[in-house]
Amino acid sequence: MEAHESVDFMRLMSEESTVSTLSSDSCEYYQTEIFDLLPSIQASRPEQNRHDFSEETNQGGREAGEKSGQLSRGPRDKTSMQPLRNLAMCIQGKRGAKERRKLEVNDINFWESWRKSQSTNRKRVREQIKEALSGLVPWQHTLRTIEGKFGVGVKSYFVFLRYLIYLNLLHCVLIGGFIVGPSIFYRSDKYEPLTYNERDSALNFFLGTGYVNRSLVFYGFYTRGSLDLKCLNTPLLYLAGIFSVIFLSLILVVRRTTVGYKHTWMLGKRYSMNVSYKIFCGWDFTIQDPTAAALKHGFIRNDLKLFLEEQSFSLRAAQRTLREKVRLYLLRIILNLITISLLGGAFYLIYFATQTSLKKGNSQPHWLVSLLFQYLPPITITFVNLVLPHIFRKISSFEDYSFTMQVNVTLLRSIFLKLASLGIYLFFVFTTTEQDAKCKENQFGREMYKLSIFNFLATFFSVFFFNYPRKLVQETYPRSLLARISGKQRFLIPFNVLDLVYSQTVSWVGVYYCPLLPVIGIVSLVVTFYVKKFSVMRCCVPEQRMFRGSSSSVLFHFMLLLGLFMCAATLGFNHYPLQSTEGRNASSCGPFRNEQTMFNVTGDCVKSLPSPAQTTIRYLTSEAFALPLILAEIIFLTSYVSRRRANQRAIERLKDMLVMSSSDKRFLVKQHATMLRQRNKQH
Questions:
Q1: Does the keyword ATP-binding apply (predicted)?
Q2: Domain locations in the chain?
Q3: Which of 475, 496, 547, 669 is most buried, taking the most CB atoms under 10 A from its CB?
């Protein structure tokens, strides 16, 4: 035993352990001996002779394998498929495992050997393809640079922006295949060709009038052409393109929302991260810059301060007297009334700007004044969305909430402001549009077009005409009064993500009236990426206080989901009067002109189908189909609830395994200390 201990000691301390002559049997002997003494192994083996029984089973494995090879080879196949470097054993054990694998390959037949080799080759090819595709992902190096200097929070904004670009690319493919392509190839000869006449100017590209109004950008261009079958015509293809855009967007957004909610629930209050995790596992190993490394230390320190601050706030809130609670609630009521008053004033300002733009926008003699009146509603909405969120942040600081609650309250008020301002503007546009307009859909599409254009222009000019000059003043005259008042610029992640969600909501709402709005969205998002990159790398300094909401994008994707619901509500509200007024508000342009609606077109298509198909469609759209659909949903949800409970039990078992692993570590430390004491006594 002493010889074994000395050899084991020399093998561990020697730098040439790879050429050790220690046999694999002795290695397995020590490994088995120490494993039998671990608390986790003893807890998992209530029977004393279980290890002996497993050894006998392993010794007779080859004989049993000859009788029933598939039965005895099952557990070994999973281990044999793992690389040797992933196996938790010493170098001699890995050599023995390699020899055993060679023997297994020699024992199996040719077909089994070929199947295993092909499976291994397919895995290697898939890994190589995955690595090659990961290198082709756009802006990968840029995102790593931003992550290394500013952390994961700022990187999440750019990842979210890239996701919106992918989403708009999918929209462009669908619209090009269903709407733009068939309308161009099968356009009727009775419509005049698209030409650029003398009355058109460059101003039309900003207002959406003239040449742009007659082009394929807007709804009025897409008319019935030579493709005029009952179930294959321009109106049906137009509806298929719009509904496919909305449906696929709903699937993708819901999927990302549920995945994010799953991670948030896992890391929520039920499985919260304690202080030890924040200290020992909170480091970001992607940071390369020394300044960013020092800042990460500050992040961890500030996070601990925030944790202690929240604990002290909870203690202080629990110790409030009745008078203090009444005073605080009265203060919050007053501040909420101020917030509601600000929201009401913002909505009235949007209404006033919309009325002024519709009345005086086209009657101004000078083109610059006309352009200003045409863009008055987008300017007003952008101004309101820029100023009020910062006022809400100041108001929340007086309401005596915790820091996390302050951020959440500010975000909720900002979400309501942005979506409600857009909804109020859409309502005013619908209700104030002239009934005798030539093409009301084009007029509504122009409003969404101007909102998208001005949103992009506001982002561009705010960076190059406000943020960058402010940075130059701070660098050139750091001790001036203006530099001290302006302060250092920081990239506010919540407000910037809110701007992205707002622009995507505008794109969804206007895609029916302006089918090429996703193309405009792609161009603006790509330019916004580089503009925001310049702003972050050149003008901003890293945030001194960690943003908790950056670790979960559930709220932002939920906002995207609300934008989709607003898009569906806008389409429903716009098409409901067409059925309730007996064609008085029917469209005079586009695919549904001449008293046609989407309901008439789909009804004509259904009537032209064979009788079994008509019966099937009527059944699927009737109330009788609702009962089996509800039953299927109940079964589907029940299966998911069962899986959730099973996963919860698995999580509890994993938590128990973590506890036992800590017990194993304590046991190994004690054993190591005992061996060291015995060795010191021998010497």
A1: no
A2: 140-637
A3: 496
The one-letter code for the residue type at 448 is: M
Residue-wise pLDDT for 42-100, tens only, equals 666 554 444 444 444 444 444 444 443 443 344 444 445 566 666 666 777 777 777 77
User: What are the backbone angles phi and psi of residue 228, rounded to the nearest 5°?
Assistant: -135, 55
Percent of the chain with pLDDT over 70: 73
CA distance 397 to 394: 5
DSSP state of 490: B
- Separation of alpha carbons 490 and 390, rounded Å: 14
**Smallest Cα–Cα separation from 529: which of 170, 160, 256, 171?**
160
Please give the radius of gyration of the chain, using alpha carbons only, rounded to the nearest integer.
Answer: 34
Amino acid (1-letter code) at residue 185? F
Q: Work out the burial of residue 112: count CB atoms within 10 Å of its CB; fewer than 13 is exposed, 13-18 middle, 19 or more buried.
A: middle
Q: Burial-class residue 308 by CB neighbours within 10 Å (0-12, 13-18, 19+).
A: exposed
Task: Render pLDDT for 442-481 as a digit per residue (tens, 0 to 9).
Answer: 888 888 898 899 889 989 988 998 888 888 888 888 888 8
Q: Among the residues of 463-516, which ranges form H helices?
A: 468-476, 481-486, 493-510
Contacts of 2 (CB under 8 A, 6+ apart): none
Angle between helix 517-534 and 140-175 (nearest 10) = 170
Render 292-314 in DSSP notation, one character per residue. HHHHHHHHHHHHHHHHHHHHHHH
> What span, in angstroms and rounded, lies between the C-alpha atoms of 218 and 415?
29
pLDDT in tens, 310-355: 778 888 888 888 888 899 899 999 999 999 999 999 888 888 888 8
Q: How far apart are CA 382 and CA 418, in angstroms?
A: 9
Do 414 and 495 meet the contact criterion of CB atoms below 8 Å apart? yes
**Closest C-alpha among 491, 152, 156, 158 to residue 292:** 152
Looking at the DSSP bridge assignments, the partners of residue 191 are none
Q: Is 156 exposed, middle or buried (0-12, 13-18, 19+ CB in 10 A)?
A: buried
Rounded Cα distance, 89 and 179, in Å: 62
- Please report, rounded to a whole number, the percentage of residues in the chain having pLDDT higher than 90: 10
And the tokens for 32?
Answer: 């088995």
Please say whether the beta carbons of 343 and 407 come within 8 A.
no
Q: What pLDDT score does 244 carry?
A: 92
Cα distance between residue 450 and residue 217, in whole Å: 13
Segment 208-213 long-range contacts (CB within 8 Å, at least 24 positions apart) = 208/445, 208/446, 208/449, 208/450, 209/446, 212/449, 213/442, 213/446
Complete DSSP assignment for 69-108: HHHHHHHHHHHHTS-GGGS-S-HHHHHHHHHHHHHHHHHS
**Hey, what long-range contacts does 392-396 have (CB within 8 A, 24 or more apart)?**
392/339, 392/417, 395/335, 395/338, 395/339
What is the spatial distance between Cα 672 and Cα 37, in angstroms, rounded to a whole number? Answer: 13
Q: What pLDDT score does 580 carry?
A: 42
Contact, 549 vs 196, CB < 8 A? no
Both tokens of 334, joined, read: 């007053």
Distance CA 290, CA 295 (A): 8
Can you say whether residue 344 is alpha, beta or left, with left for phi > 0 and alpha for psi between -120 and 50 degrees?
Answer: alpha
Indicate the length of the chain as a whole number.
683
Residue type, 512: Y
